[in-house]
Every structure is written in structure tokens, then in C-alpha cells.
Specification:
Strand content: over 45%
Largest sheet: 7 strands, mixed
Shape: globular
Number of domains: 1
Structural class: mainly beta
Strand order of the largest sheet: 1-4-7-3-9-11-13
Radius of gyration: 21 Å
Order of helices and strands: HEEEEEEEEEEEEE
Number of helices: 1
Distance between the termini: 63 Å
Number of strands: 13
Length: 174
């Protein structure tokens, strides 16, 4: 039996095959792959604000412009290992609103954490996005858009001037 197992392992190693077996459901060799989930909401009045600057890590980002809106409202679906690692804030800095949605660490064992965001803004607001990874959807934002994206698809509909710097992923602007 031991010789058979040794032969299988040796053959796998020589062919470049990688065998992964997580025999424990308690984290096993690689740590827990189960992510916790939490929903958080943020809101900020747009009185005196000309631009939203969003700095986001992994996860999807949807920004929806709405005529007559007087606030920026964020719904964040957060999937995480440790709540102390979550960075989520929406604050005014001069005439900018600054949204941060990320984690303090960038290297994880098991499933990587991510934050899916839905952001509702006044339609005429300018938007600057610095995004790590994940899909971006922006609709009905008539102010200038400046997007710096690491990876993931970008879909923009009914927008003002658009400037995109993208690492990888499809881009659709309508």
C-alpha cells in the first residue's frame, strides 16, 4: 500500500501535476476558506462636494447617478475573514467625497476577502475611481469619469467625459 501511494505521488511530481487535498473542514493546512458576511451602509451629504474619489480593492463596484439626489449613499456587502481588517469609510475632504473600501492585508490563505459596492450619487457629480479588481458598472453619471482599474470588466452607460486606464478586462462605453 505504501509503495503504491509513493509511486502515485512520485509520478504526479514528475509530470508536474499538483495534488491538493484539504482533509479537514476546520481550516486544514491552508486556513479557513469560509468568509463571513456583513452589510454596511454609509451616507454623506453632497453639499459643497464636486467629486467622488473612490479607492476600492477587490469586489464589484456599481455607481448609479440619480437626478435630484443630494447625498452619496453606499451599500457594502463585505465578505471577510477578520472584521478588524476591513477598511470602509466615506468622508468629506474639501470639495471631495472620499470612499475607501479595502482590507488592511493583501495576502490571504483560502478565499480572499472582497467588498461588493452599490453607490448612489447625484447624476452631475464627477467621479474618480481607483479600483483593484472586480467588475465596474457606472450608469447615468453625467459628470467627468476618471477610472484607473487593475482588472475586471468595465461597463459605462449614459456618462459624461470618460477617461480609462485599465490593466485587463473588457470595456464597454455606451
Amino acid at each position: 500500500m505504501k509503495r503504491t501511494a509513493l509511486a502515485v505521488v512520485t509520478a504526479s511530481m514528475l509530470t508536474g501535476c499538483v495534488v491538493y487535498a484539504d482533509v479537514a473542514d476546520d481550516g486544514g493546512l491552508w486556513g479557513s476558506s469560509d468568509l463571513q458576511h456583513e452589510t454596511r451602509t454609509l451616507s454623506l451629504s453632497t453639499s459643497g462636494i464636486d467629486e467622488l474619489k473612490a479607492d476600492t480593492g477587490a469586489g464589484s463596484l456599481e455607481i448609479i447617478g440619480e437626478a435630484g439626489r443630494t447625498s452619496i449613499d453606499v451599500t457594502a456587502e463585505i465578505y471577510f475573514h477578520d472584521a478588524d481588517e476591513i477598511q470602509l469609510s466615506l468622508e468629506q475632504d474639501g470639495d471631495d467625497a472620499e470612499l475607501v473600501a479595502d482590507f488592511n492585508r493583501s495576502s490571504y490563505r483560502g478565499d480572499s476577502p472582497y467588498i461588493n459596492l452599490v453607490v448612489r450619487v447625484p447624476a452631475e457629480l464627477e467621479v474618480e475611481v481607483n479600483d483593484g479588481s472586480g467588475s465596474i458598472v457606472i450608469r447615468d453619471v453625467l459628470g467627468d469619469l476618471d477610472i484607473d482599474d487593475g482588472s475586471g470588466s468595465i461597463n459605462i452607460e449614459n456618462a459624461g467625459n470618460v477617461d480609462i486606464d485599465d490593466g485587463s478586462g473588457s470595456i464597454t462605453v455606451r
